[in-house]
Amino acid sequence: MKTLSYLNFILAALFAACYCYQFVFLVVRLLRKRRTFQAQKLCRYAVLIAARNEAKVIGQLLDSVRGQDYPAELIDVYVVADNCTDETAKIAAAHGAVVFERKNREQVGKGYALNFLLSKLKNELPEKTYDGYFVFDADNLLDSHYVTEMNKVFSNGNKAVTSYRNTKNFGDNWITAGYGMYFLRESEYLNRPRDYLHTSCAVSGTGFLFADELLEDCGGWNYFLLTEDLEFSADLIARGEKIAYCGDAIIYDEQPRGFKQSIIQRSRWIKGYLQVVAKRGGALVKTMANTGNFGCYDMLMNTIPVVVLTVLGIVLNTVMFILGITQARQEMGIFFGSVLIGSINSYLLMYVMGAMTLATEWKRIHCSRAKKLKYSFTFPFFMFSFGIAMLVAVFGSTEWKPIKHTVALSIGDIGGDTRK
């Protein structure tokens, strides 16, 4: 059992070695102001929304797009109603979107839907030209200044920009709050320092903008893995492009409430991470070796090591537990002591991560003070549950499945301007 303690120590040391650079990110976030921009011009944009049976929420998103303080004549909205069996297409059209319906049961997923939508624009509406394309999910809501703020960053020559991802149902339960803090930390403690240090950020599923010329350079939208957003990010970084960050552009996202649904979603993310490394990892390593691009290293570290080391740790401790109760019961105290110490240290680390995020983003989180404090203590358990998702991703069967969205809030229901 002493061997177990040594092996757990080695795994912890490897984990720390892979992610110690994020301590620099932490210092930058706390001590440095984000970069600021002034708009160089008013660009023309297309909004792209892939929706599958989103009749309950898509109207609110489209209203929030229409409610932007950016010139309305410079924003066109396109929706692909992807294999829908409800009134998504009808509702989207009623709220002013141009709608294309897609029926394809073989090629399923957001990546295929976006490729279909962009192909429709290029082939059927060639007279429509845009400087850039926004990508949103149907359950999103946009702060009224969203496009104005994104345009400031984009118009200064940044070909791809990601935004501040907030949560519209943060206070529902410990799972939605866990997601909320996870994405807030990603926005402010990863993407913001990356942007300040002039390395590349990463797109996080929704709420991003990319240039038309970038689409042309990449040969169209050809990102079809389970995590098409990460594949897109990896491809850009391997090409030497940088994704910028706009912390004043706030998007609100709905998070799953149920534990089972959450595990299914996160196992898909993790399986997608592995797919991205398998397909794009070689290009990232090549670019890193040839140019010293830190963004490539950062991208690789945020995909493979966390999965491999976590799964190894879970499997190792499970095997040692079985051996202990069958062959060396007298040494089980060492086993439980090792697991207990590791668990306490991990909990404290995760709690500090969540508490710091909660403290700096307090005013932007829309739920009661009591819930914010309560969910700071449950955040570590949300992070620990990634271990279950990792096991499902590695050893189970994972495929793309739509997530049901039912939180039909308007941007007015959430609150006012929370820029800072």
From TrEMBL:
Keywords, sorted A to Z: Glycosyltransferase, Membrane, Transferase, Transmembrane, Transmembrane helix
Residues that span the membrane, as ranges: 6-31, 306-326, 332-354, 375-395
A UniProt-annotated Pfam family: Glyco_tranf_2_3
Domain of life: Bacteria
PROSITE patterns: PROKAR_LIPOPROTEIN
Keyword Glycosyltransferase found: yes
Annotated PANTHER family: POLY-BETA-1,6-N-ACETYL-D-GLUCOSAMINE SYNTHASE
Assigned protein family: Belongs to the glycosyltransferase 2 family.
Protein name per its UniProtKB record: Glycosyltransferase family 2 protein
Lineage: Bacteria, Bacillati, Bacillota, Clostridia, Eubacteriales
